[in-house]
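Page 47, continued from p. 46.
Same chain as before, 592 aa.
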Amino acid sequence: MAAQAAAAAQAAAAQAAQAEAAESWYLALLGFAEHFRTSSPPKIRLCVHCLQAVFPFKPPQRIEARTHLQLGSVLYHHTKNSEQARSHLEKAWLISQQVSFSYVKFEAASLLSELYCQENSVDAAKPLLRKAIQISQQTPYWHCRLLFQLAQLHTLEKDLVSACDLLGVGAEYARVVGSEYTRALFLLSKGMLLLMERKLQEVHPLLTLCGQIVENWQGNPIQKESLRVFFLVLQVTHYLDAGQVKSVKPCLKQLQQCIQTISTLHDDEILPSNPADLFHWLPKEHMCVLVYLVTVMHSMQAGYLEKAQKYTDKALMQLEKLKMLDCSPILSSFQVILLEHIIMCRLVTGHKATALQEISQVCQLCQQSPRLFSNHAAQLHTLLGLYCVSVNCMDNAEAQFTTALRLTNHQELWAFIVTNLASVYIREGNRHQEVVGDMLHVCPGVFGLRRGRHPVRKRFLRETLKMSNAEDLNRLTACSLVLLGHIFYVLGNHRESNNMVVPAMQLASKIPDMSVQLWSSALLRDLNKACGNAMDAHEAAQMHQNFSQQLLQDHIEACSLPEHNLITWTDGPPPVQFQAQNGPNTSLASLL
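Result:
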């Protein structure tokens, strides 16, 4: 018995020594691999060699699965060898299911689905994620993460109904496992998609519930404030979508205060006790840029264009710093949206050349990302259409707006494009085209304003003034006032005309809106001439001359830029290079 016990002890000792030796060589190779991966610059080839050296030792399945995952991850993130990355990740997924290695299993599924999507194999990614979700219910962190990932995949495919369903499932699961924080993240994400779908009746109760959850949740201060930022961003966006620029101010102020609070908080190293809480919506720096962006959107709608430019400059400066260290796609999306807004500002303030150069920047950003171009192609052609109108290239404007219509299903953008296209047709004198008749259903006010039916025109404009005054929409107010002033002038009611044009001029100067200033100064000149006010007429004429000269110089500069050739691009991805123009070749008659 003693001999048997001694032999058993020796066998156990030998087995332990063998396991320890195996652990030693594995840890040594792993240590070398990590050293090479984190070197500056990273030595990825040597890292891969170290990990591949694990397999000849015929390690246990757990180590084999983990090593395949590590190799797949390194190859996916640091090389262009997607075929080998896919092979290793698929092996990690298969082997880890045999040994019930949850961490490796679910991370392999997550990375592999990302790689499938990158290779446009979405049909392979979906069943993989569904299978992983099905078997991860006992692992709260991974179950929630995989639900978020599949919802995001459906969102990218424009299948918002399926995405909302998954987010609803996630919210209920988070409630069951006691994670009110992650429940709020799921619900806020669902609210964002409902806003995109314009399902406003469902949005209201959902946002109310989210507000209650956010206020009642007690946890990590940064997580709580990030939830509040997410909630307030949705509220502000909801108000702005409805044109409620004045009503949104309290929410916007709360949002700005909230981001200031977050910037003073330090990241807490203590991990949450509930694994389902191991999520964060956005990094603080990204939230800061987002709040700048929302502020720019508000300033644009309110007609505070100098303020919009100030916050755009701050946001773009912050983005440039972040993009040096962070290649997150959302940063490029933020940059494109900011540029889209500032381009519209430039066109309004009479800086067409700068606007054109910024349109070119958007083209360059879209060249780097097919997905970004797909999401912003319609907006890009719309901006080019607006630029074409500003330099009186009406044929090109028509082509750009028509292209934009073909590329969008977004209701508000479609209506905006159609309205501008209708205006182009009217300016070209094509009132009898069938397409213009069809547009009457979308923008009847435009035609009423241009056909000389003064009672109809005044009714539309007074309704517009009522709405714009109620919500402090300054640019809309200025445009309505100058149009009403023009109508009263044509009708011979000079006193009423003056009462409209003077505040229009003041408001346009505050914005500043160059087109309204040009029109207002011309009306003031003609009004004062008609009333025999020679000095005031001379002053207004001088103002009009100054505005005309500014527009003319900017027009010449814009049309001389090589980027001006963009006005002919209507198909495919943005052109890479531009040839210089010989000079402007468009008429300024409509501008002056």
